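Q: Structure tokens for this one, please.
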Amino acid sequence: MKDELALIGCEWSGSHIRAWAFDDEGDILSAFHAREECGPAPGLWASRLSFQLTEWLGAAPSVPVIACGAPAAAAPFLAAPVPLSHLAGHITETAGIHLVPWIAQSAPADLTCGAETLLFGLGDANGTICIAGQHT
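A: Here is the predicted structure, written as tokens:
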């Protein structure tokens, strides 16, 4: 049903959490931004993200939550180059939150830290894209 919450998408970069509520047609119902001064501390990120989502929605989400960025550091990385279509098969779940894996390049060493999810907005799964890494 259009306009009914179907999915929460989150991105955590540094001290910023951004989240979007989507309906079952992929339309954005609302958006949220919060600062987490401590950043995603190991072992605490899931509870902090859940807290922020509950503050925004008024209750814990009862729909799938998918996240990219800093929380995905706990998940295995994918080696570059990798087709975007492979990301979905490597999503892991921690504390009820589905994590999109980072893409890592071995030489020169670099990580995307969630930036790879921006590529889905291009609408073209074929081709080569260069993203300037935050850790080069």
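A few notes: The chain has a mean pLDDT of 80. Residues 53 and 134 are 26 Å apart (CA to CA).
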